[in-house]
Amino acid sequence: MSEGFIDELHNALGKGAVLSGSDIDARYHHDIGGNPAPKPRAVVRPRTTEDVSVLLRLCHREGVPVTTQGGMTGLVRATLPNADEIVLSMERMNNVEEVDVSAGVAIAQAGTPLQKLQERVEQDGLMFPLDLGARGSCTIGGNISTNAGGNRVIRYGMTRDLILGLEVVTADGTVLRGLRKYIKNNTGIDLKQLFIGSEGILGVVTRAALRVFPAPAERQVALCALPSFGQVMAFLKLAQQRLGGELTAFEAMWNAYYRQTVERVKGVAGPLPTNHPFYVLLEASGSDAERIHADLEQLLETAMGDDLILDATLSTSNASAAAIWRIRDSSVELGRSFPFAARMGFDISVAIDRMEEYADTLDARVKAIDPQAFTIVMGHVGDGNLHPSVYHEHTPDKHDEFEKLVYDLTGEFGGSISAEHGIGISRRPYLKMSRTEEEIETMRALKRALDPKNILNPGRIFTV
Ligand code: ZN
C-alpha cells in the first residue's frame, strides 16, 4: 500500500466514510466470541453502490486486499481482517428501498439486517421466509454470501431460492446491474448465482431483489416425542404427505439436546418430559387457521395410532408457539451454559437414513479420544442438515483432533462439511472432504477471471 493511500480514500469517499487508527472500533476486528484479529488498515463505510465502486477501483489499482463485513455473525472467520486488509463494512447501506406487493419483491441494500427486512415487509402483509437465530444482527448481504439456510428451508429453500436479482460490484469496480424482479430469465449465464454462497470472493453484493410471500394468517407448532430415529423418518414422511406445502419446519432434537436445554437454559420450559429418545418440532402455516389446526390434529392422531409418536403438545397461541421455538433456538445459549470454552459446533449434511449411524459413530469416536467428552445433536432433519456439537472440557488441547474427526467422518458418509455456515478460513483445510480437486480448480479459475489481483476476501474458501 503506497503512502497516502488512506488519504486518497478519505478524499475520494468523503469524511465519515473512512475510519483509521484509533477511530476503528473493536467490533470490526473481533469475532462473535470476542476473539481478536489484526486491526485493519482502515474501515470504509460506503453509503452508495458508487462508493463501493470507487473504493474497489482504487484498491484494485493498488493491489490492496479488502474484506467485506455484514453483521459479523459468521462462524468460520471469513470476515475477520487479515493483517494489511481494509474492511469494507456495509453497515450504512441498510435500507429497504422498495416493497412491490403485486410482484412479491422487496429491494434491500446489502447491509440491511434480516429482521429489519422481515418487519418491513410484514407491514404490507408479506413475509420474507428466511429466518435464523442471528436475525437481529445478520445482514441480507451476509445471508447471500453464505447462502444462509435456517429454519424454513424445507418449505421455501435456501437464500439462493429467494433471490431474483443482484447488484454486484466486482473487484475492479465494475457494477453489474442485475437487480431484476422476475422469476423467469433464460438469457445466458445466470451471473447472480456466482455471488450467492461464494463468501464475497468474487464480488461485493450491494443490493438484492428478494422474493416475498403472503404472510400466513396462522402458524401452529407441535412438539412431539418419538421412540427412535426410524420413527422420526417415518413421521417426516407422513407429515410431508399430510401437510404438503403447509409444512414449514421439521426440526429434530436428540434427547441430550432437549434435556440439557430444558434443564440448563434460563427461561426455557419443556412442555414434554425429558426422558424420550427423540423430539421433533413441527410447524404448519397457512391462510386458513381452522384447516391448519384440523390437519395438524389429524396428523398427530394418525402418528399416535401408528406408534410413530409417544407424546405431543400443540401450540394454543403465538406465545406458546414461541415458547416451543425457544427450545430449538437456544443452541447458542446451551453452549454458553457449560462453564468451559472447549466446545465446538458443526453444520454438516448427511443423508437422512444415515443420520442416526452418523451421530452414534461420532459419539463413539469422540469418547475414544476423551471418555469424558460428549456430543449433543439436533438439526434441520427435513433438509438433511445436522448440527452436532462436541464438548471436551478435559482435553482442550485436542480441538484440532476433534475437528478432523468430524470432517473425516462426514467425508466417509459422503456428506457436506458445511450445510449452512460456509468455509471461510476455519474450514479451508477440509474443503477437499466435500469437493473434488477438479471442482476446486474450477472455483480457482472463476476467482482468477473475476478478481485477477486477488483482492476480495483473499484466502477465504481456498487459496489461488
Ligand atoms: Zn441451522
Structure overview:
This protein is an alpha+beta fold and 464 residues long. 32% of the residues lie in helices and 20% in strands. The chain folds into 4 domains: 5-89, Uridine Diphospho-n-acetylenolpyruvylglucosamine Reductase, domain 2 (2-Layer Sandwich); 96-214, Uridine Diphospho-n-acetylenolpyruvylglucosamine Reductase, domain 3 (2-Layer Sandwich), CATH 3.30.465; 218-332, Alpha-Beta Plaits; 338-438, Alpha-Beta Plaits (2-Layer Sandwich), CATH 3.30.70. Strands 12, 13, 14, 15, 16, 17, 18 and 19 form an 8-stranded antiparallel β-sheet that branches. A hairpin with a 5-residue loop joins strand 8 and strand 9. Helix 7 (229-243) runs antiparallel to helix 9 and helix 12 packs antiparallel against helix 13. The two termini are 21 Å apart. 45% of the residues are buried. Zinc ion is lined by residues 149, 347, 380, 387, 420. Residues 36-215 form the FAD-binding PCMH-type domain. This is FAD-binding PCMH-type domain-containing protein.
